[in-house]
Amino acid sequence: MRNVVVTGGTKGIGLAIATRLSQDGYRVIAVARSESDAFALQRRAAAESGAGMLTFRAFDLNDVPGLPGLVSSISNEFGPWYGLVNNAGLGTSGVLATMQDSSMEALLRLNVASPIALTKYAVRKMMVAGGGGRIVNVSSIVAATGFSGLSVYAATKAALLGFSCSLARELGPLQITVNCVAPGFISTELTKDLTEADRGRIARRSALQRLAEPQDVAEAVRYLVSDQARNVTGTTMTIDAGGTA
Fold this sequence. Notes:
This protein has one domain: 3-Layer(aba) Sandwich (Rossmann fold). It is built from 8 helices and 7 strands. It has helices at residues 12-23, 37-49, 67-78, 101-129, 142-145, 151-171, 196-205, 214-225, and strands at 3-7, 27-32, 53-58, 83-86, 133-138, 176-183, 236-239. Strands 3-2-1-4-5-6-7 form a 7-stranded parallel β-sheet, sandwiched between helices. Strand 2, helix 2 and strand 3 (53-58) form a beta-alpha-beta unit. Helix 1 runs parallel beside helix 2 (37-49), helix 3 packs parallel to helix 4 and helix 4 runs parallel beside helix 6 (151-171). The model has no long low-confidence stretch (mean pLDDT 93).
């Protein structure tokens, strides 16, 4: 059974990704600070179905120096890494001129430093195993389109795009693919500050006249992790119901 680690995998988009991958027969290790009730329900459902496996590892991904130990402990318990989905992130909003330095530093640490460092140590395990692998980074459409009040958040998500393109070149000879998904505005914790008027306005701007859902992102990740995407690397899949069409 192939092991795939999903950060922030106990709620929202991460939970949808973890659940979908387990349904495809992967052993999914969800890394987050705490296990949600929704994740516990899905974990039991996965155990009953016998298709894949959902398991939980408690870890604060802000602890960048602790990431090598996390990677080693997961490897020791479950064996080789096949996939990594860097989904965990902060969506703190704020106008740059008045944003607290501590808020900016928190965004940069969790959205950029943490996934890059985690990928570094995960890639080492994939290289030792020698069987290729899959890395998927969850970016955002605001990395390209922008949105008022999300300048620092957009910068962190744009960083993942550049990181993925260059890393795809580095890891291609090892048959490790690196891709991004860029969700639009989806109803999760990261968009809870949007008013209903904002949601309606965003939906009306999209080609399909609706907002995408967490399951839509999960299906895109499921494809990028699969064998069917063996020749897809260094690219970004946008999931926004045509909001940027």
